[in-house]
């Protein structure tokens, strides 16, 4: 079994932040990106955590990720925003955009945001949680489709035409465990395959095809020209297409090639319809009622979306985050490139304050 290294969240944050700053990111951007990555690890979604650091450095080196870019507003109304991410960190642009959308929704009823020209935005559930923490409902989608757009095959197809095209939804509950839906429209996100490869484990059946179109459970087969399958056959396929259509509101469609892509966010203020406190109380009662369902054979309990992330976060804030040896080695190489330490000496007081146990 592969060796794991245990890190507390503040130390991982400091490592990622310092690497990004050394690579050219502004300090405030590096803080946001590092926090969003670490929060993905804390939530149990290691596929969107610090294992992404080496890939982002490659993007900076290759000139297709601008680490200091700030989002620019292309068009704005009381209820809409259209943004250009400047080719920068998608995490920073998405958090910034969600914050502005929340402000607009709180001033009125709702706000829709369309984002183009930005890098990978990380775990979408992060922004759904951001909306829910502000007492709002949040919807986030990322879609990319067309020839050469990604490795996910359309239902009935033999070649990839979509990215993983995730969708996330957040609903406030008035407590630390909001309702959070966050999943790729492929059976698994590509990052989950990275995690399996880093741990030397196989994938569940029904997730990927090899380059010959045959089912496989080996991560190496995916990276050797393989493909992803959409969840739920025609249902996941259709939902994947819908994320592209929402993304296309950014004007990022190409009639000649038939490609369409973009990021879409919507924030709704429940208090515009019913008192927020009463609504949140009703949501919690509804969720608790569902959780009271007698569990089926082989299950200990019924969970609702958001429970897993909340429980994992509480546990990992105390016990720490396990990093596979392969990812640890990569982080060491990234730090060594800039003569940075991975030690506790890098942790600042503000880093510890960000991650106090709940």
Topology, please?
Elements: E1 4-7, H1 9-22, H2 27-42, H3 53-62, E2 72-76, E3 80-84, H4 90-107, E4 110-116, H5 125-133, E5 137-145, E6 152-153, E7 167-171, E8 179-183, H6 190-199, E9 208-209, E10 215-216, H7 219-223, E11 227-229, H8 234-247, E12 260-268, H9 276-291, H10 307-319, E13 321-324, H11 325-337, H12 349-354
Parallel strand pairs: 3-4, 6-11
Antiparallel strand pairs: 1-13, 2-3, 4-12, 5-7, 5-12, 7-8, 9-10, 9-11
Helix pairs in contact: 1-2, 4-5
How would you describe what is shown here?
It is a single chain. 40% of the residues lie in helices and 17% in strands. It is an alpha+beta fold and 358 residues long. It folds into three domains: 1-68 and 306-358, Hypothetical Oxidoreductase Yiak, Chain: A, domain 1 (Orthogonal Bundle), CATH 1.10.1530; 69-186 and 231-275, Ribosomal Protein S8, Chain: A, domain 1 (2-Layer Sandwich); 193-229, Hypothetical oxidoreductase yiak, domain 3 (Wheat Germ Agglutinin (Isolectin 2), domain 1, 2-Layer Sandwich), CATH 3.30.60. A hairpin with a 5-residue loop joins strand 9 (208-209) and strand 10. The protein starts with a strand and ends with a helix. The mean pLDDT is 95.
Comma- or semicolon-separated keywords:
7-stranded mixed β-sheet; alpha+beta; globular; Wheat Germ Agglutinin (Isolectin 2), domain 1; single chain; Hypothetical Oxidoreductase Yiak, Chain: A, domain 1; 4-stranded mixed β-sheet; 358 residues; 40% helix; Ribosomal Protein S8, Chain: A, domain 1
């Amino acid at each position: 079994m592969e060796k794991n290294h245990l890190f507390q969240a503040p130390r991982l944050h400091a490592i990622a932040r310092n690497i990004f700053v050394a690579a050219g990111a502004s300090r405030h951007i590096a803080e946001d990106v590092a926090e969003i990555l670490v929060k993905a690890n804390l939530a149990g979604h290691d596929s969107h955590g610090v294992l992404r650091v080496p890939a982002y450095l490659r993007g900076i080196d290759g000139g297709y990720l601008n680490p200091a870019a700030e989002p620019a507003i292309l068009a704005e109304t009381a209820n809409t925003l259209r943004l250009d991410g400047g080719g920068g960190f998608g995490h920073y642009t998405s958090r910034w955009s969600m914050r502005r959308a929340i402000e607009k929704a709180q001033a009125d009823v709702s706000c829709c945001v369309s984002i183009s020209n930005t890098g990978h935005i990380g775990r979408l559930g992060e922004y759904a949680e951001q909306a829910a923490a502000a007492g709002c409902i949040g919807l986030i989608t990322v879609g990319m489709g067309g020839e050469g757009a990604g490795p996910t095959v359309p239902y009935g197809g033999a070649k990839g035409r979509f990215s993983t095209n995730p969708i996330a939804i957040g609903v406030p509950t008035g407590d630390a465990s909001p309702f959070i839906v966050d999943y790729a429209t492929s059976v698994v996100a590509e990052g989950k395959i990275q995690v399996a490869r880093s741990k030397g484990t196989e994938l569940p059946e029904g997730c990927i095809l090899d380059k010959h179109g045959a089912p496989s459970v080996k991560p190496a087969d995916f990276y050797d020209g393989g493909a992803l399958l959409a969840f739920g056959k025609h249902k996941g396929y259709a939902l994947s297409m819908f994320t592209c259509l929402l993304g296309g509101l950014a004007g990022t469609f190409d009639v000649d090639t038939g490609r369409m892509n973009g990021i879409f966010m919507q924030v709704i203020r429940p208090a515009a319809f019913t008192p927020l406190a009463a609504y949140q109380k009703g949501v919690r009662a509804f969720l608790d009622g569902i959780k009271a369902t007698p569990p089926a054979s082989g299950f200990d309990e019924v969970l609702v979306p958001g429970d897993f992330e909340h429980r994992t976060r509480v546990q990992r804030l105390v016990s720490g985050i396990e990093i596979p040896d392969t990812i640890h080695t990569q982080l060491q190489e990234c730090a060594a490139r800039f003569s940075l330490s991975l030690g506790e000496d890098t942790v600042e007081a503000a880093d510890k304050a960000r991650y106090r146990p709940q």
